[in-house]
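Lab meeting, action items carried over

1. Structure of the two-component assembly. Owner: GW. Status: complete.
Input record:
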Amino acid sequence: MTNQKSFDPYDLFNKFSTQWEKQVNDLIMTNTNNPRFTRLLQKSTETSAIYKEMFKKSQDLLGDHLHLPTKDDVTNVAKLALQTEEKLDSLEEQIWKLQDSISSTNKEIESIVGVSSDIIKLTKQLKTELTKTKLELAETKELRSDLKVMKNELADVKGLKEEISILLQIMSEKNIDKKNQAVSELVSTQSK
Amino acid sequence: MSRDTLYNNVIPALDIEKEINRWNRVLNITNQPKLSINQTPKQEVWKKNKASLWLYPAVEKKYDVPIFLINSLVNRAYCFDFTPGASVIEILVNAGYDVYLLDWGFPGYEDKDINLEDYIDDYIRKGVQRSLRHSGAASISLVGYCLGGVLAAVYTAIAEEPIRNLALVVPPIDWDVNTFIPDKWLEGIKNGTLNLDRFIDGYGIIPKFYQEQMFKALNTPISYTPYINLLNHADDKRFVEKWCTMNNYLTDTVPFTRAAYKQLVNDFIKDNKLVKGEFAVHGKKVDFRNIKENLLVLSSKYDTLVHQDQSSPIMDLVSSEDKTLEEVKAGHLNIALSGKLGVELDKWLCHRS
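Predicted assembly:
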């Protein structure tokens, strides 16, 4: 028989055990899940705690008399180490905060430097423009004085013009007189 | 018909070689090879007390928003970086995300006074701040698993840091609904007849052993079928390797500090302050309406610890416009240990990062 299954005695045992375990656990649960058991649990843990406290007190007393370190003494030493660790941690965090504030200050400084360089650029530009304006102003002044001179000259020219016109008037009047005189002379000559 | 043939027909033949292999492996179980865990390349970014912040850089960075993983306080963080091929972190870094993991470490007696508020304000907040600074990213995605999900939600409600996305994986938010705690025990906690504060005070931190037994008592007080299962499949080398790795993880729990335990039991379980909006972190009131980030809530179908009823109420408490509630076919641990979580996160985050 080639397909004959080999005998496994544990398979049945496993099935049986699983069922048995479940039943036992159910039984335990039924007998412990009640107020009577919780009271018993409370009482027994309370009694255990009382004896433990008594034992600890005696241990502390003995430790004091014989100068032996107790568990609390060792705990205190360990707590000191923890405090040191916490202080180191808080120091590290403060260093971080400092680093952060330094880097933010650096950024601010960088932005201020940027603004300052802009201002310097602007000032230089203004200075150049001021010099230009000064030059222009000087030129304008010169121009103004020239204009004044021209104005004066024009005024002079105007006077001259008036004088010329007067002269012309006089001259024309003289010419008329001369003409009249010549005519009269001519007339007189002709009459003669 | 001879006697041998009769036996062979009724009782199948015993495979002697298989049986030798099986018993060899079972008897030498402590020496069996285990699968490699925690294998994704990482670098430490920050360390505080027992906690560490790890960075798992993306293989080829595709997304600007890094992921910040917050583990539960009771499990080891390597549940996110389990075996190769089933590692949540491996899936995410291969997809192109930078992943930061907050590993709570292993609290000692000296940490007994660290409560949930301290975990949120001094560890998660600082961790997120450092991740943001380290990555240079403008915002971050938070992913919280189990109790880590609750802490992530609480932190997001009071966060001043830029959180882009919030993914909560099986978070136990509402404790007035069906929980893994037996109902009479829960009743005892709520009416004050069951109060373990004094017992826990005596220990300072809940020792690993108690933690393990507590979860067993709440789930399956007697559990031996995993061993029977091992015996049943001990001839399969791969199964034995997986079993050993898983067994190691399940027994590798993390102690819980008494202050955190008291706050968990009294504020969350007993008074249900989270849902009522009465919880405060160092004086800052936690109001889930302040959560406006994109929200994903994942629940697992076969979860025996945190039911969907416990996670879903947050959907109505937040102000997020983009919110999704999804059920994954997995168990409470299996959702992380199988890597399914990585696939689900990538699917949701890829459009939001």
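2. GW to write a short summary for the group page. Key points so far: Chain B has one domain: 43-349. The mean pLDDT of chain B is 89.
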